[in-house]
Design brief:
Blueprint: H1 17-30, E1 42-49, E2 52-58, E3 69-75, E4 80-87, H2 90-107
Antiparallel strand pairs: 1-2, 2-3, 3-4
Length: about 120
């Protein structure tokens, strides 16, 4: 993904509900401005942890009942998703992001690198 300069997601040292919402909403608003991926989706970084990244993904739904948003924890070394949560609305994405922050932090601890 091309560098889009200053990423506010990297500034969230004290992590609270308002900050999580601000990060996800800002990323959501940036999605249409970002280049499409090969699969047609848009991806915006939310927070980086060592070799992992939490990101917001918007894809084109194959069926009207499928969610178009998801929060994904990506292993940057292998470019594979460690965990992904589908979201119906931006509010769901905020909750998924908050739930996945501890997962990402745990994943990057030294004793979990062998996964």
């Amino acid at each position: 993904m091309p560098d889009r300069g200053h990423c506010p997601a990297q500034l969230c040292a004290p992590f609270d509900d308002d900050r999580a919402e601000a990060i996800v909403v800002e990323a959501y608003l940036q999605l249409p401005l970002l280049p499409r991926q090969v699969d047609g989706s848009w991806v915006a970084p939310l927070k980086k942890y060592d070799h992992c990244e939490l990101r917001l993904v918007e894809c084109i739904a194959a069926a009207p009942s499928q969610p178009v948003l998801r929060i994904e924890l990506l292993d940057l070394r292998t470019q594979t998703a460690i965990e992904s949560r589908s979201c119906e609305e931006v509010e769901d994405a905020v909750a998924a992001f908050q739930a996945m922050v501890p997962v990402a932090a745990t994943w990057t601890q030294p004793n979990t690198l062998a996964r």
